[in-house]
Structures are given as C-alpha cells and as structure tokens.
Automatic annotation (TrEMBL), chain A:
GO terms for molecular function: formylmethanofuran dehydrogenase activity; NADH dehydrogenase activity. The keyword Oxidoreductase applies. Pfam families: Molybdopterin (PF00384). It is an enzyme of class 1 (oxidoreductase). It comes from Methanogenium organophilum. Its EC number is 1.2.7.12. GO terms for biological process: methanogenesis; respiratory electron transport chain. The keyword Oxidoreductase applies. This is Formylmethanofuran dehydrogenase subunit B. It comes from the Archaea. One of its GO terms (cellular component) is membrane. Residues 53-263 form the Molybdopterin oxidoreductase domain.
Automatic annotation (TrEMBL), chain B:
Keywords: Oxidoreductase. InterPro entries: Amidohydro_3 (IPR013108), Formylmethanofuran_DH_asu (IPR012027), Metal-dep_hydrolase_composite (IPR011059), Metal_Hydrolase (IPR032466), Metallo-dep_Hydrolases_sf (IPR050378). This is Formylmethanofuran dehydrogenase subunit A. Residues 43-507 form the Amidohydrolase domain. GO terms for molecular function: formylmethanofuran dehydrogenase activity; hydrolase activity, acting on carbon-nitrogen (but not peptide) bonds. Pfam families: Amidohydro_3. It comes from Methanogenium organophilum. Its EC number is 1.2.7.12. The lineage of its organism: Archaea, Methanobacteriati, Methanobacteriota, Stenosarchaea group, Methanomicrobia. It is an enzyme of class 1 (oxidoreductase).
Amino acid sequence: MAKIVTDVVCPFCGTLCDDLEVALSDDGEEILEVYNACTIGATKFLHSQAKDRVTRPQMKQEDGSWKEVTYDEAVEYTANLLVDAKKPLMYGWSSTSCTAQGTGSEIGEIVGACMDNTATVCHGSTLIAVQDVGVPSATLGEIANRADRVVFWGCNPAHAHPRHMSRYSIFPRGFFTGKGSKSRKMFVVDPRNTDTAKMADVHLQLEQGHDYELLSAIRVALRGEALPDFVAGIPKEQIYETAETLRSGRFTVIFFGMGVTHSLGKNHNIDIAIAVTRDLNDYTKAAIVPMRGHYNVTGSGQVWGWQFGFPFCLDLTRGFARYNPGDSSSNDLLIRDEVDAVFVLGSDPGAHFPVGSVKKIAQLPSVCIDPHITPTSAVSKLHVPVAFVGVEVGGCAYRMDNVPIETRKVVEPPEGMLTDEEFLQKVLTRVRELKGAA
Amino acid sequence: MTEYLIKNGFVYDPIQGINGDKVDVAIKDGKMVDAGDVTKPTIIDATGMTVMAAGVDVHAHVAGPKVNVGRNFRPEDKLFNAAAGSGLKRMEGGFSVPTVLRTAYLYARMGFGFSMEAAMPPLYARHTHEEIRDTPIIDQGALPVFGNNWFVLEYLKENEIENTAAYIAWLLNQTKGFGVKCVNPGGTESWGWGMNCETVDDVVPYFDVTPRQIVSGLIAANEYLGLPHCMHVHGNSLGEPGNYEITLDTLKIAEDYSPQNDFGREVVLHNTHLQFHCYGGESYASKSFESKSKEVVEYINSVDNISYDLGVVTLDETTTMTADGPFEHHLSHMNNLKWANTDVELETGSGIVPFIYNPKTFIAGAQWAVGLECGLFIKDPMRAYITTDAPNAGPLCRYPRVYKWLMSAKARDDMLDNTLKYGDKIRERCYIGEIDREISLYELAMMTRAGPAKTLGLGHMFGSLKAGLEGDVAVYPYNPETDTDDPEKIEYAFGNAAYLIKGGRMIVKEGEIVDMGNKRTFWVDAKVNENPMVERDIAEKFRRYYTVTQNNYTVEGHHFVPNPYVIEVDATR
C-alpha cells in the first residue's frame, strides 16, 4: 500500500501548482508516482530518484576529468573563490527557496558581489517596465473567479505552463465564472500557430516583432480614433472588435511571456501592454500578469526587494546596493570581462546565456550548485550537487502572481547530501572567517 | 542578564504620572524594576536628557507585499538614499519605502521598540512574516484585513457575529495575525468590478451588504472574541473632499458597543490616519476645500470608546500604498504617475502610487494642517497617536519632524509663513491658524507610547516604565529645561536617541546601534467553540475558489515566525 503525500507543491514553473499528490513506497524512500502534475512537474519529482545522480561535489582537473571532493573542500573552494575575487558574479537564485536566497544575499553583501537572477534573461524587461509605469494586477484566483476576457500575449502556456489554463485562466469554474471556459473569451496574440493559439476564440497572428504597434493600435481603438487598414498585419476591423470585446468584459486579464519581453522593443512592449491594461480600467476591470518561468524567480526578486530594494541586477561592490540593468546585468558583466569569478546556484546560464558569456564562465574560477549535471556544471570548475528544493527539502517560493507558498519535503535526499541552504550557511561561515568578520 | 540604571534624566511616564521628574529608571532580567532592585547595574548617565518608555507605533506599513512592490518599482527611492553597512549593521537603502534593515535601524534611532504592520493580506501573510523575520531589533505584529473578505461579507449580511468571530479566530491562527483591520469596507470588493463603496450605506455588488453592517459586525465580533486590539478601521471615501460626514457616520457605529477584553483596552474602534478622513468642501480647490478636523475630533472628544492616529502629511515625495484599491486608482488619475494594483482572491486588494506632497500647492499644505489639527484638538492624548501612516502621508523617518510641529507653534508658524506657498489660504480654510496649543513631552509620551500600547492591548508590556513591564527604554538628547528655544532640537533629539534598551539589551549606545536585539513577532491565538458550519464553509471555499489548498495556506510558525510571542485569548463560552 503506497503512502500518499498530499498538498505537494510543484517546484518547476511559476504556476507553482500546490495540489500534487505523490505516492511513495512503503518505506517512504522512493517516489512511485506523481498525481495531478503536468508531465514536466512529474518528471522533476521522478528525476530526483535517478540512479546515476551525482551525490558528491566534483572538481574539474587539469585534464578535464572530474574528481570527487568533500563538501568541506567544496565550501573552502567556494568561499575562497568569492573572497579572492574583486568582483564576483553570483547568478541564478530562481530554483531555490527564499531562505537560501536570503543566505546567499548575506554572502554577496560581505564579498561585494554582483548578484543577478534569471529575470535578467526573461522578465527583467517586465520589471523595468513596472518601474516605468506600475502594474495593475491580481492574484490568479481573482482571475479564476472573475475573468471573462483572457489574453495570452507572446506566451504558450499549453507547453510552458501546462496547468495554467486548467487551474487559473480558462477552464476553472470560479465564483462569478460558473460556466468555466464557456464564461470566457480567449485571445491569443502570437505570430506562431501554437497549441495555445489553436484553442483560442480569437488568434491575432501578428507579424513578428510588431507587438508594440498592435498594442498601440488597441489603445487607439479604445479611444475610438482612426486606424490604418492594417497594423502588425492585423486588419483594423479585427483590432476594433478586439478592443471592444476587451472593454465590454467584466474583468479582462492579459498574460504575457517572453514573446514580448524579449522580442524587439523589450521593456517598451511591456510598458504599452500595461498602458492598455490601465486604459481598460477606465471602462471595466483589467489586470496584467507576467508568465514567470522558474518556480521561484519571483521570490528572488521579492527577497532582494526587502533586503536591498531592487529585484535583480544588484551591484553590491561599493558597500551599498546599486542597480543599473544593462550595466550591472550578468551578460553585460561577463561580455565586458568585468567579473573575475562566477558562482551559479539554482539556474543554468550554460544552457541559456549567449555562447560568449558561457565561454567567459569557462575561463573564470567558477562554481555551480545544482542537483543536476547541466551545461553550466560542465563548464564550471566545481560542481556541488544539492538536494532538490520542493522534493527533498521544503522552503518558501513565490508564484508568478507573487503569492508565497511553502514547498514541501516529500522524501529524504541521498545520504550525506547537503541542501542549498546548508551549503550556503557553511560558505557564509567560512567567508566571515576569511574576512575576519566572524 | 545585565542590569541597567538610568540616572539623572528627565523622566516622562504618564502611566505612573511622572512628568519630567528626575527619577532613576532600572532594568533587570529584561524587565523594568524599581531602582532599589538592581544590585550591580551598568549606570547610564542621562543628565540633561529625556527618558521615556520605548516608542510604540500603532500603524505603519513596513513589511509585506505592497511595501515590497513599493520598493521594487521605485528604484528612484534609493537614489542618494543608501548607506553602506558598518559594524553589525548591514547595508541599507530607501527613503519612503526603506529596506527592512533600514526600517529596523530607523525605529531604533527614533527610540521605538514595537511596530504594528497595519495591513496584511491573508493570502500574503507568509510574505509579511518573511519580511518581519528579516527586520531585526523591533517587535512587530501584523493586522490581517477583513473588511472585504467574502466569509465576513456573507456572515455579516445575515448578522452572524458568532460565525464571523469563529472565522476571525481561524484566520488569525492561520496567518499569525494580531487583530482585525478593515480597509474601505466593501469598497475593495466592489473594486473587483471596478466600482467602490463611497458611503457607509452603499451596497457591495452581489454580496448585498453595506459598509455600516461590516464595520458594526466586525466591532461586535472583535468584542465577542475579546481581542487585545480593537477593530482598526480605514473608512470609506478616504481622501475625498467632504468625507468628514462619512467619517462621522463610521465613528457613530461604535456608539452601540463597549469594550470587552482582559487587556485594559478602553476603546472599541480605532480610526486610522484620521487626517485623510476630515475633509470638507467639494473639491481640492482652495475656494472649496476646508478642514473639518475640529468637527470630527470634537465628536471623538465627546465619547470615550474611540481612538485614532493622525496620519500627518510631511510634505515629502513618498509612496502611497493601501488595501483601498479604488482609492489608489483614483489617485493615479490625479497625478498620472505609475500605478500598481493587486486584487487578492476572496480577501482584499491593494494599490501603490508614488506621490509628491508639494508644499507649493494649496492642498498639500492644507492636508499638512489637518493632520496637525487632529493632534492638537484632542482632549485626551491617550486616544490620539502620532503617525504619518508611513509611508502614505510621509516617510517613517519624519516622525520627529511631526513632533516638532505638534510641540512648537513657532515651528508651525514658520511653515505657514515661509515654506508653504499658500500659508494664508491654509489659515483661512483650516483651523491651524487659531491653535496655539503645544504638545508637551508628557503628552508626547501618551501619544507615542502609553496610548498606542493601551489601544493595542499591550499596556501590560509596553508604553511605561512601571516595574514588571518590558525593559524597553529610550533616552533622547533633549533637555526640557534648556532646549525649548529651538524647535529644531526636538526634531534632532527624537531622531537620534542616545540610548535604546530593548528587552533589557542595549541596542543604541551613545547614538550608535550596537546590538540587533532579539526581535519577536506578536500574534493572537483566539480560542473559540467548535464551529462545524464555519469549518465547512472554509473547506468549501478552499476547494472551489482559492488557488492554494487549505493545507498550504497556513503560515507555519517554525519557519516564518522564529521568535513568536503568542497572546492567548479564550472566547469559548
């Protein structure tokens, strides 16, 4: 008889589903099955049980081979790497708990690091836009209970956030949306005919890179002003109709993803998307929500917000926090050869940064703290495997709408393995000793 | 634990009736004791200085989701407002929305020991507690918001006080909350549809209940439970010209209730940031707008079961933030600056807008005057507390400046004559010009420590130097015999405590922060009779309408509240 653990939180994407059920073996040591999760989430749980999992730190040798080292040696290398560097980059922080993020911040403060999270290559432009124009938003439950107009702009939740539509946005029967998807009009704005677009009531298949123009045209249409025959490849009749449908709803929500945050225009696209939302609030109720990726990228922005006042691109090198995306952002620092050591925890820049940046990481003293072997661990000098947050250790995470949920421990990590938090605490202690601040 | 004896200072302790006398103040084992009870104390020489119990802040927004939105969406608030760490202190930053570390250091420098976070969205309670955990030194609590909560709306529509109380008790336990906050009753739920409730008799869409029923029911439930703090209300139509009548309507609801509690609290309703609720006229124009602070405070003077805090406008650039979602939307249309909003499922909403109270405008000056009038018309200073509704009417760091204005008519005249562009107009449209009252140090101690401690139900711990209370003492470099000539000395002294002892530990020594203390999180655990109906309602709402499961809603004490102080209340009958 399998033991079932309920109310398990999925540590994969920003949807942070918290209704998972995990079946364990009788002895509670092995995960047998994961219920309610999407394929990606379930795989994350099951992958923690992989037989070939690395369970001890490994140091890269001169000849490129890996040699197992102890955690103490790994702590020593990491602490020295950070203390010796004039300007270390501490990157990642999106796939770990807020407690670990807080401890990492203390280390970064002591060593005078540049600290950045994965927003720098995904929703960083959103954060900049919010600093420009604010953000009228709502929790996902508010949307499930009220929204009758749902727009997915430049995102594809069917693949990237697989349970988003069923839990929050399209299918749930909420308090004021008792007919579920029949209560809602679904719009998708995407140059691609994605699986999400195929489900939409209206698919605005705009020309790639013309999001700003289309959003601007919607603002024009909302004001009842004249439009040219086509904007971004969309006929003006359809734009007027879209504007009218959004305005006539009781509650409109715009979800947006990296199709707009990282296409031409970047933060300006988000500025105007937020402006459309503001405009709609003059007629009805409207909210806009970024589709955050990692399960706790939002949390790292929150922790840094209350500790330093900025959500990403922190430069702590002068003894107080400075913030200047484009200057203090990871890729800019790497490409300009401004950092002399790289520390990565809870993300995989090796897979997602431009190859020029990855080459720099490979040349520098570097450490990668990650349960998996990743492209980043492969180019780093030291790889420190740690327990899976949300599977083998609990800890707080923030959903894409900033709602905090505490992830749960389901099984024990492999014997002798440290968690992110434990490893960081050891590094912090050692850094303090090296700095004479103990 | 170290013993302290503070000698030769001018002591102000209204609870013990000490009014500037040179009395020795002693601390032993973290508590106040009689001076004769210490044996080998560390002596603090407070010659020429003012000694009071540590300050108690009844209402400030210093931790939680909307505060953090304020921090993150205003990088400009850190510009020229950052400081490197030194000694024990970590780096700090921010002016109107400081980082949690700067918040703690600010309070310590101002001689405060306790602060109440005035609005906690229950779904975000975990976030609020994470920030509170990371704020050292000061003790804190947080008030969850109830005025737009679906459970409350549904129960109070039918006047089900016992069920409301059972739900409140459950939510305080789940969120580790301290008491009952009510912001724009009914209005924020209406904002879910882009609407508002502007008077106490407007009906909330769908829920068919009025703000009057909500305020009345929440007071009744609060007294049913016998909570330490009274019902804490931010009424309808905040900031609107002509709103004083709505404020009076709200306050009069309290006439039907008397306090029922074991904590020495004598009021049933606390009206927060009264300044924003005392406006007459029909517009913000100088020919229409007028102060109605006298009318409102006179009513409060005529009853004995209402307290309030001032919410003084400090004429700074600041960041407004409130669970009054529709108000912030309205405000964003007034100044066209950036606007953040978050509606929280089944519970509440919030908005954040930067704001500049420009002394060159009539209305900012008039708001400044109204706030001070609220403090100067009070007959019983134990029921009027000095706040800036930080950061709404002004940043936290401006408290000492507000003391200066309240304590010195000269300082007020200087503002009206030399700083405010429309000083004469403000004298004409407000009462400020006809008031020569100056708040004394004794009254200041009532309005910043003894009074708020009492209304929070914490008079048995804070607000006085009486033996047995917490060992929280502030010493300010202000000589009441020789420093009265210059109001600037007031502002300097109360922003630069010479000493702060908190829970028997020396936090500030000779003006420097030397200890991060042992901060506690206060919350109230109210026991009620088993209530299967409310339990079923909660389970049903979570199953159908919340996006977190009921089991994932609870703020776990072990993690987020590492040093809790639990006040137990037994409402089982």
